[in-house]
Every structure is written in structure tokens, then in C-alpha cells.
Fold this protein.
Amino acid sequence: MIDCSDELTTKVLDAAFEVHRELGPGLLESVYEAALAIACIELGLTCSRQVPVKAKFRGHDLGVGFRADLIIEESLLLEIKVVDSVLPVHIAQAMTYMKLLGFKRGYVLNFNEKLLKNGIRRISI
């Protein structure tokens, strides 16, 4: 079951369902990322794509950088996938970004599913 307990989550997941309904499965991640960004912006949400995420230790940049696919309203991480199935490494990737960004929640969205609801993984830390 998908948790839509707040207005932001509901809007974002509804937008993801619209993107999947219009484009279907099987395209590249970058296509879904761009389309979902447009759908969120059309809803009046702030949306940033390919956001740099730096890792630091004791104030020192560790020289390892990541890029979060989408950040909505500066509080919700979305990692877009087009894979056969969401694996633990995909969840770990999203959790890493969330910890480094100080976010409490995020989603991994696998657009390679016939039904998008089967490709949604909620992450809370």
C-alpha cells in the first residue's frame, strides 16, 4: 500500500502516475525525470533536477559527490529508476542522499513497471 498521508506526497505521486500513464514503461530514466519535473512544476511545486549532494566529514569535503534525481519543495527526495526490480542498493542510494541532505522522507520510483504502484518504494529515516 502506498502512503499518501500528506498533501505533498499525494500531489507528487499523482503527478508520477500521470507521467507513467501518458508515457508508459520502457523509456530512459532521464525522460521520466524531466516529465515528472514538468508535472510537479505545473502543480506549483518547486522542483530541482540533478541536485549535487556532497559528503562531508568533520567539515571536510570527502571528494565524493552524488546527484539526486529530483528534490521537491526542498524536502522530498525522488530517485527515478527504470529497472527490472528495485533492489536494496537502490534503497541504500536514496537513503544515502537523504542522510546527506538531512531529509526525513523520499521515494524510489521504478517506471519500468506495467503498473507504477508496483514500483513505488517509500523511504523514511
User: Anything to note?
Assistant: The longest helix spans residues 7-23. The mean pLDDT is 94.
